[in-house]
Amino acid sequence: MGFEQLAALKAQLNQGTSDKEVVPRARKVTVEVARETGLRSKPRRTSADAAARAVATLQRQFPQAFPRAPAPKVPLKVGILQDVLARAASLGLSERDARNGVKLWCRGQRYWSCLVEGNVRVDLTGAITGLVTAAEAEYGTSQERTRLARRREQLANKRRA
Prior knowledge:
This protein has helices at residues 3-17, 25-37, 47-61, 80-91, 95-105, 109-114, 134-160, and strands at 120-122, 128-131. By secondary structure, the chain is mainly α.
């Protein structure tokens, strides 16, 4: 079969399917309902997505306080949330998204590992506002230990199942 014959065959196949819409079986019912009602479903926005977008906004606006990976995170000043909330509207963030963004940023191994006694704390502009105390450093270490223990437990449960 030559190239011309294949092209003609493809044209015939495309001509027969141009009137039909190829829809997976699982979505067929929802597509039909959407057509009948005239409504289209939007992908659901989760709070995790909104928090991640808030972190990206904070990284763009305040790169000294919210550095991009692979740069290590820096300890933020105590009370940084109030500073972020005061500027949330001007950044285009809701109070909830700003709060969840700061919460997401301050959770995890990268942040807890920067909480070392004597490290400097910074505000939104990167100015030094204090030092990490021994109690705060211990808190970071305990948070990391708890996270690792939880992860080990999850892996052990997966192995059993």
